[in-house]
Amino acid sequence: MTDSYLMRVSHLTKRFGETTVLDDISLDVAAGEVKGVIGPSGAGKSTLIRCLNGLEPIDAGQIWLDDTELTAKKADLDGLRARIGFVFQDFNLFTHLTVADNIRLGLRKVRGLDRRSADEIAKRELARVGLESKWDAYPAELSGGQQQRVSIARALAMEPELMLFDEPTSALDPESVGSVLRVMRELVAEGMTMVIVSHEMAFIEAVADDILFMAEGRVVEEGSAEQIFKNPREQRTRDFIDGIAAALVGEAEADTR
Ligand code: ADP
Ligand code: MG
After folding, report:
1. Beta strand spans in the chain (E)
2. Whose alpha carbon is nearest atom 7 of ligand 1?
């Protein structure tokens, strides 16, 4: 392809049984872009992210990674997934493997690296998320925030072209959230192409080049942080942003009681 889009989604529709969960979604992710996805629970954000990684079969439309169609009948999904890092809400680490083995697994099995090269990369990525000292630890010995940083290190070790995040901090206690967002900010600074579903509105507002507001399986509004947060064009977007602002004020008031 001649344009600089790394991922293109064209008229994607996804149903579960009779229910249309994603309805005619189109979006483009340019190389180096940070795309934020926000919206109420049940909007279809997780389903969208899973479709982008080829984890859900779709009912209509197309998804392209560079010039390869992910949704083609004969697509090499394993090959495509090796180019995409995925960080889930609930970390998805292998609980019976150490941190080192969690990171080495894909390097050995998918990238076919020898032990020494895999070790080298695993060490480098673990250092990048500030967890060198946890090499031999098991996931259960780590806090939620540490587990999520291992999960990010594991994804980065595969040297993905695109990173997908599905609410990476929503299962964390408040003191862990910052450490994960810090790592993500560094990735933004390094120019990583990212699609981030998050309820951390201040974070999305700060890092996203472009934001999709989704509700009921549709993209209600797409625009800059300035547009979505300060000057939404759609009433539905405004209601959502105002609702979150009101909830934050409520929390702050409850804290001071
Ligand atoms: P979000 O991440 O925005 O909260 P989801 O993508 O998880 O939304 O869900 C969107 C809708 O799809 C919801 O109504 C949910 O109940 C439904 N859904 C999600 N996964 C499944 C599934 N595996 N089977 C049936 N319905 C599903
Ligand atoms: Mg979700």
Report:
1. 5-16, 19-30, 34-38, 60-65, 68-69, 84-87, 162-166, 193-197, 210-215, 218-223
2. 46
Q: pTM of the prediction?
A: 0.94
Q: Which domains does the chain have, with CATH numbers?
A: 5-255 (3.40.50.300)
Atom of ligand 1 nearest to the CA of 39: 3
> What is the identity of the amino acid at 180?
V
> Do the beta carbons of residue 205 and residue 34 sit within 8 Å?
no
Give yes or no for residue 21 CB within 6 A of ligand 1. Answer: yes
Q: Is 37 in the pocket of ligand 1 (CB under 6 A)?
A: no
Q: Which atom of ligand 1 is nearest to the CA of 17?
A: 25
**Average pLDDT rounded to a whole number, residues 59-65:** 97
Q: What number is the average pLDDT over the span 22-49?
A: 97
Give me the chain's average pLDDT, please.
94
Mean pLDDT for the stretch of residues 164-179: 94
Q: 82-133: per-residue pLDDT in tens?
A: 999 999 999 999 999 999 999 999 999 999 999 999 999 999 999 999 999 9
What percent of the chain has a predicted confidence (pLDDT) above 90? 90
Pick the atom of ligand 1 nearest to 44's CA: 6
Q: Which of 163, 227, 220, 173 is nearest to 197 (CA)?
A: 163
Residue 141: half-sphere exposure toward Cβ, Cα within 13 Å: 11
Ligand 1 centroid distance, CA of 162 (Å): 23
